[in-house]
Amino acid sequence: MLFDFFYIVSELKKVSRKGWKEKAGIEYPESVADHSFGTAIMTMVFSDILGTLNTERIMRMALLHDLAESITGDFMPGEIQKENKKIIENQTMEEILSKLPLHILDKYRSLWREYVDCTSKESILLHEIDRLEMAIQAVKYHGEGFSKEKLQEFIESARQEIKSKELVEILDEISYK
Fold this sequence. Notes:
By secondary structure, this protein is mainly alpha-helical.
C-alpha cells in the first residue's frame, strides 16, 4: 500500500499549475509539486521566525496541502464552486490517505482537515503563505519575460487574502524589476 501512496504523491510532479497556463499564457508552467515545495520552505522559515507556531505541524500540512491535485488536477478559482471543490478534494484525500498504515492515518487525516477548515494559527498562516508563494512566482515569470498585466492578477489575488503583518511586508516589497 505504501507503494501506491508514494506513486500517487509522485504524480503531483506532472500536474501543471493551470492558472499560469490559462490566465497568463505560460505554456510550460511550474508543477503543483514545484509550488508545494516552495510553500513548504516558506512555511518552515516563517514558522521558525515567528517562534509561536508548531513548525513540524505546519510543515506536514504544507506538504499535504495540494496532494489531492495529484488525482483531481489543479482547479482554478471560479472553475468549480468552492463547496464542490472542497467535497471532491476531501474525498480524494480520503482515498489517498487510505493507502497509509492505520497507525498514522488519523494523524494525516487530522492535519488535512485542520488545513481545509482553517482551524489553527498554523493552517491560517499556511493559506496565506500559499498565496505569497504564488505572488513570488508571478514576479519570477515576469522576470522571464511574461506579461506584467496578466501576472498582476495573481499578485492582487494574494494581496486580498494575506492579512499577516509579516507576509504583507514581503508582498509590499514585490515589484517588477
